[in-house]
Amino acid sequence: MYRFLLSRQWVILTLVAVLLIPTMIRLGFWQMHRYEERTARNDLVARALDAAPVPAQSLTAPGKKITTRERYRTVTAEGHFDTDREVVVRRRTDSDDNIGYHVLTPFVLNDGKVLLVNRGWIPSDGPSQTAFPEVPAPPRGEITVTGRLMPDETTEASGIKDLEGLPDRQIMLINSEQQAERLDAPVLGGYVVLIEPEPKGDTPERIGRPGNEDAALNFAYAVQWWLFAAAVPVGWWFLVRREKRDREAAEDGEPARPEPAAV
């Protein structure tokens, strides 16, 4: 009664089931790997955000690359803002996905080095994308700033194209090497997202803390794929049993063949 498994239809169905099982198992392990990666990143970010503030120059220097462990560390620096050489970063969004700019202001340290400070988001000024927007001024004079340390932005990491021929004082990426050339000054590697002092009138709009990645979703997907893998042979056997019963029922209900006529 199981000879039907050798039919073309059932051979194809069985081969598909055999291929699906390892594929789903591998997808489950891939999702579990993503879960472990995201969990590790969440732990790393949480530790960086909870760490005590340290002087910026203890973690970065001109030409230095900011590592994954240094990213989001809270740093402090003493000096003054140089608004005359301030620029804006194009095509940046706020928490509601409105398009505008990030304000990037050089912060000149007491030893003459420069720390790039992202002071936050401002909206675009109407349809014009060429004029330098109105930017609220930061505090004047010698102050202490506190911010989250971030690595230089690159096209490879961000997907943002570094366009040429932009309007004056507008850039696409925050990159300390590029800004060192523009400012003709020693610029500390990376940049900081400003935390304190808070802006007057809530503008520029401060950039919020990074949130946790949804690692639990990857864990759920992994379990889901493995359940699918387990369900494939169960479903295949269910179909086989049903086919067998249908064939048996068809044979049992088949009318008797008539006796041959006597000569």
From TrEMBL:
<dbReference type="GO" id="GO:0005886">
    <property type="term" value="C:plasma membrane"/>
</dbReference>
<dbReference type="InterPro" id="IPR045214">
    <property type="entry name" value="Surf1/Surf4"/>
</dbReference>
<keyword id="KW-0812">Transmembrane</keyword>
<keyword id="KW-1133">Transmembrane helix</keyword>
<feature type="transmembrane region" description="Helical">
    <location>
        <begin position="219"/>
        <end position="239"/>
    </location>
</feature>
<dbReference type="Pfam" id="PF02104">
    <property type="entry name" value="SURF1"/>
</dbReference>
<keyword id="KW-1003">Cell membrane</keyword>
<comment type="similarity">
    <text>Belongs to the SURF1 family.</text>
</comment>
<keyword id="KW-0472">Membrane</keyword>
<dbReference type="InterPro" id="IPR002994">
    <property type="entry name" value="Surf1/Shy1"/>
</dbReference>
<protein>
    <recommendedName>
        <fullName>SURF1-like protein</fullName>
    </recommendedName>
</protein>
